[in-house]
Amino acid sequence: MTKHSMYDGPFTGGKDEDRVAHDIVEKEAWLRSFGMAPYTSPSDYNISKVNKKRVESLNTTNTQNLPACEKIPGVLSAGFKHHLEGLKQDCLTSVNWSGACSQVSYAIKQHTIDKVVILGSASIFSHTGEYVFWQHEMGFVLAIFELAKQQAQSKKTRTPKLYFQDPSFCAADHRLLQDLGGQVIQDPEAFMRYIDGKTLVFAKCPPLTMYFQDLLQTRPAVCISTDLKQTIDGALYLQSKYSDFPPNFDIRGTAESFMIGRQKAELHQAMHHLYPSIPDRGLDNFLVNMWVYWQGEKVNATREAKKVGKLGNKAKKWLESL
């Protein structure tokens, strides 16, 4: 279902600035091919030290035959909407995605989901963003939201709302995500009040500080995120070597408390050509190291947390087995 870029290989000649310029041009050409107006922030040129005229010259050379674009960056074109809808349907119906979607659907059915919160989905308009990854992630996100809506319809509960939060979003991202039916949360800390026992959270590779100090402090009904055990190891390393976490912050204890009453499953793989510029690389698992964690029976979190605190070595061994 993926519409390939008109560029199949990396920009191999010239300086680093030329390669960055080519990446910008390739993404802009990809967006234009769906009738979307591209946008690259002036700060992106400053940060990457790319000469804007170099980008404009490549655009003139390589994109002159592309369809006309909408005038406002981020406004969802019919072509791009159709493309993302195709990716969503692929997630919902293809064998490649069926395992992961079945797992998510099972977790959703244990709850009444009225909010789907997407953390760190990244900007499609930033020159550092990877549009191949972005489109597959957005297709999966829209499929998850569709599963939540279907469950709400079957239970005759209110239709869930879709929220996005990422500090890298620009105004064009806001327009695009709103046109897709979502709401953008501006404040990175504001999402905390949206997460409760009726929330599904999707957080692919979240910053470790946010993951432990914010997300794991909440009690979402369902959480789809990077493997918790691996994030513990990474957080402990940051705490020991750097000042990302306060010295007295209990990383393992936070993870233990989050896992109380939860079930977990590693998401089935979904294989795609994620690196089209490397022809010999083959297929990669888009959902590598991704797990779904869902709340089982209701428990008194405070009481159970105290119990876990008394388990000592048994609790540590249990956590290490995650």
Summarize the structure.
With about 325 residues, this protein is of the alpha/beta class. Helix content is about 45%, strand content about 10%. It has 12 helices and 9 strands.
What does this structure look like?
- The chain has 322 residues and is of the alpha/beta class.
- The chain folds into two domains: 1-73, no CATH class; 78-320, 3-Layer(aba) Sandwich (Rossmann fold), CATH 3.40.50.
- It contains twelve helices and nine strands.
- The chain has helices at 16-32, 42-48, 52-62, 78-93, 95-109, 131-155, 171-179, 208-213, 228-241, 251-259, 301-310, 313-320, and strands spanning 115-119, 161-165, 182-184, 199-203, 222-226, 262-266, 271-272, 284-285, 290-295.
- It has a seven-stranded mixed beta sheet, sandwiched between helices. It has a two-stranded antiparallel sheet with strand order 7-8.
- Helix 8 (208-213) links the parallel strand 4 (199-203) and strand 5 (222-226).
- The two termini are 35 Å apart.
- Mean pLDDT is 81; it is low at 1-15, 61-67 and 299-316.
- It comes from Aureobasidium pullulans (Black yeast).
- Pfam families: SRR1.
Specify the CATH class of the largest domain.
Answer: Alpha Beta
CATH names the topology of the largest domain as Rossmann fold
Count of beta strands: 9
Number of helices: 12
Q: Specify the CATH architecture of the largest domain.
A: 3-Layer(aba) Sandwich
Strand order of the largest sheet: 3-2-1-4-5-9-6
Rg is: 21 Å
> How many strands, what sense, and barrel or not for the largest sheet?
7 strands, mixed
Give the termini separation.
Answer: 35 Å
How many separate domains? 2
Strand coverage percent: 5-15%
Low-confidence stretches: 1-15, 61-67, 299-316
pLDDT average, as an integer?
Answer: 81
Bulk shape: globular
What is the H/E string? HHHHHEHEHEEHEHHEEEEHH
Estimated helix fraction: 40-55%
Question: Which structural class do you get from the secondary structure elements?
Answer: alpha/beta
Pfam families: SRR1
Domain SRR1-like: 109-244
Protein name: SRR1-like domain-containing protein
